[in-house]
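U., I forgot to send this yesterday:
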Amino acid sequence: MRPVFPAILCMTLAAATTQAADWYVRAAPQTVVIGNYSAATPSVLTVKSGDSVQIETVSGSTKLFHDLGLKDAEIPPALAAIERDVKDRGPGGHILTGPVFIDGAEPGDTLEVHIDRITLPVPWAYNAFRMTAGFLPEDFPHSASKLIRLDLKRNVALFGPGIELPLRPFFGSMGVAPPATAGKLNSAPPWLHAGNLDNKELVEGTTLYIPVHVKGALFQVGDGHAGQGNGEVDITAMETPLNGIFRFIVRKDLHLKWPRAETPTHYITMGMEEELVVAAKQAVREMIDFLVTEKGLSRDDAYMLSSVAADFSITQLVDGKKGVHGMIAKSIFVKPPVVPAVVPPVVPPVVPPVVPPAVVPRPK
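Result:
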């Protein structure tokens, strides 16, 4: 673990800002990684299973924000210091806060990440595309960017005249270190370490389950979004700084191959591969495995239930690996009705009828 920098404060020193979290990690050159997930990255904080951490994230660049018309007072001050002082960069571009080392997490375990709170610290977001990226680079051989003001009181984004979008903030990238053999992994494509999932369902109140690949898990987070459409087709969402409170639980009893998630109303499985069809098949197979292992269905019934009850959607199309997620409602799993015990009715004993004799002698 790195020394405790001023960027990391215990709850007693930052009670007003941590909102009941055990720890607070602000975004600073000493607490962020740019562009990668790696088992070799030193941790910035060690916590115990069950602890909660408030984590601050930033996105974008000061040049972009100046070009969009933002004043220095509107830009998180940490961003300029991060751009100036962080030397270890790439191969991706995301600014990720962490890693956080969770004591007791070992390869083969699952890290249960409760997203307890998400807050928007600034009243703006941006969207941008560039000529070589996005899902339709052949149709848009140029770059463009747009500042989107946020009405935090009304909880809407003011995209343009007559167009208001509901705010559903979430972190596009939440992940752990990949296996050590993967080296310094690009932060753009999601994989079995989770990472840049860009799943708009992972809002406040949801839980992400990530397979652990290295000791301590090494959780990182960034890529804040004020909202997004499934697909994220131009390569960005409503990008914005975000703060979150995360509660980490080490699960020794749960062993996953791929990340899963859970909202208050749905279970979520995921697939992520270069080819969309392969990603979709992975999400369906994960749904079948979930229904077999967690709900006790046969594989045949799980396949059929996936067809009649689960919804499979494109998560994103632009991160190198395509994403597909399946959602199945918790409400369909009703408890078996309580059947009262059957009490046999009381049957009176059968008394044979009195049959008069066929021949009655005459009286004399």
